[in-house]
């Protein structure tokens, strides 16, 4: 039975609870930790320091979101997390926190595409720029001279993934897009971190787009409506890179370029 069928067969109070879920959302894939609390149609979002601080800042910030809303952990319907791609340690932090908190709260988890959240943030920041069928490439800095990249198509009410997130060398955008006609739409921090890789290739850009709380909340609410819920034990981060650090020789060689 689908979630929609389940709602129609439940008493009014229970149906309302499913239609207006209480969702806690976190993403630690980037240099900032982005968080949100979804209460039906309302969203409370914030961000805190990430990177090495993520493990120590995220839980207190989540607790504050709940406390400010007067909620306990047991009142949550699900916990959503950004599965990546992104920083290796950050992805492990988000997944392990979501698993542990969901197990303790007795609720399922929702796995979110971090790059799709960047796409949604770009759309939210400039809603008039989008028409149904528009494609957006998201490019995030992956360090080590590489990019996390994926393409998404706006369907009028939600995003549809056109490509799976993958790892690109800095030269790939130019090789792939230089001969492609039409407008190239690109969002993500790679536009700021590696401007030369996109110079002359893009006509519409959203370099400040990030997996912010409001964008994560929108994706989490849509996933909830589609009944895309996981047992906490099945939550996994998305790794698109096997190698997570350069050797000393590789770092020195990069400095000489």
Strand content: 15-25%
For the sheet with most strands, the description reads: 6 strands, mixed
Helix content: 25-40%
Termini separation comes to: 58 Å
SSE pattern: HHEEEHEHEHEEEEHEHEHH
Q: Quick one: how many beta strands?
A: 11
Mean pLDDT: 87
Number of domains: 2
Low-pLDDT stretches are 1-16, 243-257
CATH topology of the largest domain: Nucleotidyltransferase, domain 5
CATH homology superfamily of the largest domain: ATPase, nucleotide binding domain
Shape annotation: globular
Structural class given helices, strands, pairing?
Answer: alpha/beta
Rg calc: 19 Å
CATH class of the largest domain: Alpha Beta
| Tally of helical segments | 9
Query: What's the CATH architecture of the largest domain?
Result: 2-Layer Sandwich
Q: How would you summarize the topology of this molecule?
A:
Layout: H1 3-8, H2 12-19, E1 22-27, E2 32-39, E3 42-49, H3 54-69, E4 78-82, H4 88-105, E5 109-112, H5 114-125, E6 135-141, E7 146-154, E8 159-161, E9 166-169, H6 172-177, E10 185-187, H7 190-193, E11 204-206, H8 213-225, H9 248-256
Keywords:
Nucleotidyltransferase, domain 5; single chain; 257 residues; disordered N terminus; 2 domains; disordered C terminus; five-stranded mixed sheet; alpha/beta; six-stranded mixed sheet
Give a verbal description of the structure.
With 257 residues, this protein is of the alpha/beta class. It has two domains: 3-113 and 211-234, ATPase, nucleotide binding domain (Nucleotidyltransferase, domain 5), CATH 3.30.420; 115-206, ATPase, nucleotide binding domain (Nucleotidyltransferase, domain 5, 2-Layer Sandwich). It is built from nine helices and eleven strands. The protein has helices spanning 3-8, 12-19, 54-69, 88-105, 114-125, 172-177, 190-193, 213-225, 248-256; strands at 22-27, 32-39, 42-49, 78-82, 109-112, 135-141, 146-154, 159-161, 166-169, 185-187, 204-206. The strands form two sheets. Strands 6, 7, 8, 9, 10 and 11 form a six-stranded mixed beta sheet that branches. Strands 3-2-1-4-5 form a five-stranded mixed beta sheet, with helices on both faces. The chain is globular and about 55 Å long.
């Amino acid at each position: 039975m689908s979630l929609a069928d389940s709602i129609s067969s439940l008493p009014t109070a229970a149906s309302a609870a499913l239609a207006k879920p209480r969702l806690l959302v976190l993403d630690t894939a980037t240099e900032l930790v982005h968080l949100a609390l979804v209460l039906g149609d309302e969203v409370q979002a914030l961000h805190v320091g990430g990177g090495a601080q993520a493990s120590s800042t995220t839980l207190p910030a989540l607790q504050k979101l709940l406390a400010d809303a007067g909620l306990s952990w047991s009142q949550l319907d699900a916990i959503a997390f950004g599965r990546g791609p992104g920083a290796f340690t950050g992805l492990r932090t988000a997944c392990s926190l979501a698993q542990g908190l969901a197990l303790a709260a007795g609720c399922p988890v929702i796995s979110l595409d971090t790059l799709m959240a960047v796409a949604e943030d770009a759309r939210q920041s400039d809603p008039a720029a989008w028409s149904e069928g528009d494609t957006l490439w998201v490019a995030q800095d992956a360090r080590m001279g590489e990019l996390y990249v994926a393409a998404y198509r706006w369907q009028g009410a939600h995003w549809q993934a056109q490509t799976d997130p993958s790892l690109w060398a800095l030269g790939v955008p130019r090789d792939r897009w230089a001969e492609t006609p039409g407008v190239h739409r690109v969002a993500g921090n790679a536009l700021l971190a590696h401007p030369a890789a996109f110079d002359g290739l893009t006509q519409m850009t959203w370099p400040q787009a990030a997996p912010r709380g409001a964008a994560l909340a929108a994706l989490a609410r849509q996933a909830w409506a589609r009944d895309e819920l996981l047992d906490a034990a099945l939550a996994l981060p998305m790794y698109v890179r096997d190698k997570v650090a350069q050797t000393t020789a590789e770092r020195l060689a990069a400095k000489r370029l």
